[in-house]
Amino acid sequence: MGSIVFFYEACARGLHKSKWSACSPRVRDLTHMPQLRTIDGQLFDLSEPAARLSVFVQYALDDVADGAPVLVDLGAASLARVAALLERTVVVVEGEPEERRVELRTQGLPRGAALDDELHAAADAALDAALGVVSLLDVAQLLFELRLLDAPLPTTMLAERAARLLRGQPAAALRELLGVADGDFLSADEVTAVLAEPLCAPAAAAAATATAPAVPTPPPLARSVSQAMGESGQDFVTTARPCLERCDARTLRELKAVSAAWQRRAREVLCDAASAWRRQPIWSPSAEGRALAARLSGRCVVKRHGVLACMGRELDCGVDLPGHALAVVPLLEDSEWMVRRAAVQTLGKLEPAALAQHGAALAARLGDSGVFVQIEARFVMHKLEPAAGHMDAVAAKLEDSNEYVRRAAVETLGKLDLADLAQHQQALAKAAKEDKDYDVQIAARVVMHKLEPAAGHMDAVVAKLEHSYWGVRNAAVEALSKLDSAALAQHGAALVAKLEDPVSSVRRTAVETLGKLEPAALAPHGAAVVARLEDSDSGVREAAVQTLGELEPAALAQHGAALVAKLEDSPWIVGKAVVETLGKLEPTALTQHGAALAARLGDSDYRVRKAVMQTLGKLETAPLALHEQAIAKVAEEDSDSRVRSAAAMVLAKLTSQ
Fold first, then answer.
1. FRET label pair with 12: which of 198, 438, 567, 641, CA 20 to 30 Å apart?
2. Residues 260 and 156 grouped into a single domain
């Protein structure tokens, strides 16, 4: 608890702006080296450059006779550390132009990306040199001792260090680091909910009051610190903001899951549009995101489109994707409409607070030359301007002469929440019954099912599974795939019947759709899916393998032999899918297929060999050791470095036991 007591006191007392901070002190020409005096009368010399770092000292020197010491309400040990910190901090401003020095003295370190590496390194060196600031306790101790001197630069240096010490820690580790009492922990359900909500979501006070007993408001932290330390202090939430505002988005999200009190403090920063964090967010970009963003400048249209789709699908939309949004925005001007639409869709994954930063660029797409870009832009702008009539403009496209435009309008309306969707029910009902294109009719039925789940709309879709034209049958299967698992399970038998469709595209779509069932609902159809492992179309076989991989391990084990029989299937992508699906078995069940897998270490395709090696690595040590010689040979002789590396990792598992 010691670290958190210091941290509370530091934040409550050390990060506030004093009554003098609104104006800059005049710079005095000192004839004597300034001196600071402790409460017990001990004196400490302070160089003029160090004195200029403290607003308090500058103003105090105006109020005392030349040469008289400035009284500081600290003991000798504390003032010694503070003086040392001020002296060490001088090197941070040395060598900078005078205008830059004044900015650093009065405002402290810049935040986020504005803090360049050189300045960051200088600040780190100043804290490390002879001060030993290595832990949150060290930071808190100095913040507590620095509280009276109103020194923006060293204070922000410490706040930056505190943010770094908190960064990258999950909520559980933060609880321990911050010394949160067991009784203050959130429940598992509360943690799950707060981590899933939008980053900048305000507290749902009304709902919480209605569904759970009120959480007692803890005493002001200043009062708690007063009891523990014998000192008075200011309100934590107000004075701690500079520290929290230097945390990155992922850390703030995790802090919301630490305790009710920390959740409130994090929301103070995240939900206040005027806060320094909201005005200049510090996102949490991942290495994966950086790698994807670097590929956005490629010449290939298909690759640019694919990268954008991958970013929207794979990156954390709350804390990671916003950090790469500036790399996406230029593609709103791409020469290809499909890339522009993908850029709009990717930005549309952002939460409202992050999306608003790019509102002007997205609004420009409302007049795009590509109608599909316009439609997508309307949907995204609706998130920012729900009363601006953007979705009315989309609904108007239901009367367009182009069936692809009408279908895009239907599918876009289908992404609305029920309250907004209901406003367009009449137009959608008309499309479901009267549109001359079957694809549009089916798409409209799916959307109408959301509004009228008992009206038989999906029965009308299922009836299309028997249509004479394969495209309509395929569209009907795709429509079923958009249902939630519970609704989809009601049509499992109809989907299984389509596994025998004469057209391979329909069979593949049916297999893939079955894979969206919950494992328990899928299990009864396992045998029908296994039969598709012998399909004449490789795409259907691959889909069958992947769908079997959605089963629970125990159910999947029943089909292990059928999968092993397809290890030599071609093309390579089918064999690789088989290996990866076998890797989902429990280790004991996987053991019986170890020899068959090891035999595929000689496959002609490196991707299959690598997948085999990774799957073998999931075996327990004893059965894995049976294949040690073969694995060692691959590690030494395989023609592909990626396969050799995978083999080396498996060997390391053996040698570490």
1. 198
2. no
State how far the Cα of 568 lies from the Cα of 40, in Å rounded to an integer.
Answer: 85
Considering the domain boundaries, does residue 250 fall inside one? yes
Residues 100 and 8 in one domain: yes
Residues 262 and 290 in one domain: no
Residue 252 pLDDT: 97
Q: How many whole angstroms separate alpha carbon 301 and alpha carbon 343?
A: 12
**Residue 49 domain-assigned (yes or no):** yes
Gap between the Cα atoms of 265 and 257, Å rounded: 11
Q: Are residues 247 and 296 in the same domain?
A: no
Q: Torsions phi, psi of 173, nearest 5?
A: -70, -35
Cα separation, 107 vs 637, in Å, equals 60
Full-model pTM: 0.77
Residue 44, phi then psi, degrees to nearest 5: -135, 130
- Of 19-23, 184-188, 342-346, the range with the lowest mean pLDDT is 19-23
What is the extent of the structural domain holding 73?
2-166
CATH number for the domain including 353?
A: 1.25.10
Reported as a pLDDT band with limits 50, 70 and 90, residue 181 is confident
Q: Which residue has the higher pLDDT, 275 or 3?
A: 275
Query: Is 547 among the domain residues?
Result: no
Write the pLDDT tens digit of every residue in 66-96.
Answer: 778 889 888 998 899 899 999 999 999 988 8
